């Protein structure tokens, strides 16, 4: 377990938190190379391993959704430059990611 001040965080939880932040940041890339598909696949694999080994927790539901949706969204190719709707969706996804990351930290097991 990792300790962040008085809070204990399991390794897979910490890796999912970091992965959710990385997914939210990578969505702002104007061009998405083929490597991003593999990052999305890694996100799904890590999510499956976490759910299998640690049997899911209610505090992590938001984070599970963010990693699941972010992994699929990152795998989609970008065809055009940002439009207002796409940028707003990315900003909303970043806000939801921040709230989902705060869940397991503020309400530990």
Please describe what this structure looks like.
It is a single chain. The protein has 109 residues and is mainly alpha-helical. 68% of the residues lie in helices and 6% in strands. It has helices at 11-26, 35-54, 61-75, 84-106, and strands spanning 2-4, 7-9. Strands 1-2 form a two-stranded antiparallel sheet. A hairpin with a 2-residue loop joins strand 1 (2-4) and strand 2 (7-9).
Q: Based on helices, strands and strand pairing, what is the structural class? A: mainly alpha
Distance, first to last CA: 12 Å
Physical arrangement of strands within the biggest beta sheet? 1-2
Give the SSE order as H and E letters.
Answer: EEHHHH
Instruction: Report the sheet with the most strands, covering strand number, pairing sense and barrel closure.
Output: 2 strands, antiparallel
Low-confidence stretches: none
Strand content: 5-15%
What is the gyration radius calculated from CA atoms?
14 Å
State the total count of DSSP E strands. Answer: 2
Helix content percent band: 55-70%
What is the residue-mean pLDDT, rounded to a whole number? 80
Tally of individual helices: 4
